[in-house]
Specification:
It contains 13 helices and eight strands. By secondary structure, the protein is α+β, with helices and mostly antiparallel strands.
Length: 304
């Protein structure tokens, strides 16, 4: 259990020392009562509450009651001891550490500015939600299921080549059997059967939902690779009322507003910034997954 907690909570503690949650060599004042003194540092109530708020929901049952709270404090003490030892080893002067701090600073600042310039400024009121529902009431149903087939490949080029073949009249099912890396559906010509909302990754579901039966999508990228999707049937569910639909509508409208505000924000930055690219240097880069395969020997040559 001790090792489970250690590995499970690494993400919770990963960058805490970079964000000012530790107090080493007496730096800073305690944020509330001191819960533990560790060498020349301490863990205050404020430190504890900041860290415990980051515990993922699946791990919270480990830290219930007095025993659980003490267990979490023990984890923070371990982190603090390791942190102080790393300082004694002067690892804070290590080039790898400095590079990670810079990268973490950049990611944090980008996240913060997007929150201020996009997320906090995007707003959808109830009137907008109601207007959207009234204009699209026929599209909101409960229990609607789609039936689709797909061809899954590794690269965008493969997907585009297969899509071109389909446009020229080649059989979708035959191409799925021959080239899809999803072997389970490939055996059935790419058929995935019926599925409802939330059963597929968002990019796949959005693309499939935009098709009419018989239509084939352009290549769609998900974390699994590139899909060519063919919608084969729709089982229409029951009509949904406004109360059942408003939350999903609000999320959709909010996402659209944030996307629009993000694009506008980036367009303004492009006007104000001087950006130049070295296309030849970029073209010369070989990505790790683009490494050339070892040439395969010709079977006929091997026989000679």
């Amino acid at each position: 259990m001790r090792y489970f907690l250690y590995f499970a909570l690494i993400p919770v503690f990963l960058f805490s020392s970079l964000t000012g949650c530790s107090n080493i060599d007496g730096e800073g004042k305690p944020d509330g009562p001191v819960l533990a003194n560790v060498g020349k540092g301490f863990i205050s109530e404020g430190d504890y509450l900041k860290q415990v708020a980051r515990v993922p929901e699946w791990a919270r049952s480990q830290f219930k009651g007095d025993e659980g709270k003490n267990k979490f404090l023990d984890e923070m003490v371990k982190r603090e001891m390791i942190y102080q030892h790393a300082k004694k080893m002067k690892l804070n002067n290590d080039r790898e550490f400095i590079d990670k701090v810079k990268e973490f600073e950049k990611m944090t600042l980008v996240s913060l500015v997007l929150k201020k310039e996009v997320e906090d400024k995007a707003f959808v009121d109830d009137a907008e939600v109601k207007e959207f529902f009234d204009s699209n009431a026929d599209k909101f149903t409960i229990g609607t299921q789609l039936k689709a087939s797909h061809i899954l490949v590794e690269t965008e080029k493969e997907a585009k080549d297969i899509h071109d073949k389909i446009k020229k009249g080649e059989n979708f099912a035959s191409l799925a059997r021959a080239q899809s890396k999803d072997k389970g559906s490939a055996e059935k010509g790419g058929d995935l059967g019926y599925f409802g909302r939330g059963k597929m990754v968002p990019e796949f579901e959005k693309a499939a939902s935009s098709l009419k039966p018989g239509e084939v999508s352009e290549p769609v990228q998900t974390r699994f690779g590139y899909h060519i999707i063919k919608l084969t049937d729709i089982k229409k569910g029951k009509p949904a009322n406004f109360e059942q639909s408003k939350d999903s509508i609000k999320k959709q409208l909010l996402a659209e507003k944030r996307k629009k505000m993000f694009d506008t924000y980036v367009d303004k930055l492009e006007v104000d910034s001087k950006v130049t690219k070295d296309e030849s240097a970029l073209s010369a880069i070989t990505l790790p997954w683009e490494q050339a395969e070892e040439p395969k020997a010709d079977p006929e040559t091997e026989k000679k």
